[in-house]
Amino acid sequence: MDMEHRPPLTFAVLEAKIEALPEGPISALNTPRWARHLALAGVIGMIAAFVPSLLVKWLPPQPWMVLLAQAGLVVTVAGFLPGLLRNLWVLVQDIRHHRAGLIAQFDHDVDQFKALATWLAGYPRETLESSLRYARMGHERLHSRLGMLLGGIDRLGLLPVLISLFVLLRNWQDLLHLPGWLAVLGLLAPFLWLIAWLGAEFSRRLQLYAFLLDEALRAEGPAD
To answer: Is the distance from CB of 188 to CB of 96 less than 8 angstroms?
Structure first.
């Protein structure tokens, strides 16, 4: 494609190119969109289930508080259970040939990224260098902000959410009488996990932007 017919290089254009890449042989290992949406609903339900435990510290118990806690618990289970069952199914299906499948997927990704880097190499070098600097700067700023906000909680993975879920399931018959400290931790854990999850997803994407731009600069023949 000639430069006259190329759109200006923006991260929105680059993101669209990445999203358009064909899926590989073990794309089932990728978390589907519906599972991410359900997990988000599960986090919201978990927060809703813990809120009444804090409200009763300042307000008289009301029937709607019980209904909110129970509805939050139902939404939590409905949000996390399908994704958990799917992941277990994928794990069982792939456990015998996981290495060969991962290698095949990696080879597929390498070919796709090479083609995308070659396409990027058609842009002027100064454009690629500028975009690369901004991608790296964005990644560094995001990493710094997440570190200040979350500390090391992002390294715990799903553990905070699983602990909050365990607390809810163990006390499902009396959700309004959780200890205050436990309700606060149960409320904060899924909220912080959600921030860490979204931050980690965007951080990985910024790393991919930087990698593709760097590969494009290494490719032969970027236009001046």
So the answer is: no
- Residue 28 in this model has a pLDDT that exceeds 50: no
Q: For the chain, what is the HEC assignment? A: CCHHHCCCCCHHHHHHHHHCCCCCCCHHHCCCHHHHHHHHHHHHHHHHHHHHHHHCCCCCCCHHHHHHHHHHHHHHHHHHHHHHHHHHHHHHHHCCCHHHHHHHHHHHHHHHHHHHHHHHCCCCHHHHHHHHHHHHHHHHHHHHHHHHHHCCHHHHCCHHHHHHHHHHHHCCCCHHHCCHHHHHHHHHHHHHHHHHHHHHHHHHHHHHHHHHHHHHHHCCCCCC
Per DSSP, the three-state class of 143 is helix
Residues recorded for the chain: 224
The residue ranking higher by pLDDT, 171 or 136, is 136
Q: Do 33 and 156 contact (CB within 8 A), yes or no? A: no
Kindly state the average pLDDT of the residues 207-216: 94
Please tell me the predicted confidence (pLDDT) of residue 123.
92
Rounded-to-integer distance, Cα 129 and Cα 9, Å: 11
Give CA torsion, residues 72, 73, 77, 78, to 10 deg. -40
The 10 Å Cβ neighbour count of residue 200 is: 15
Distance CA 62, CA 115 (A): 61
pTM of the complete model: 0.71
Question: What would the pLDDT profile of 121-137 be if each residue is shown by its tens digit?
Answer: 999 999 999 999 999 99
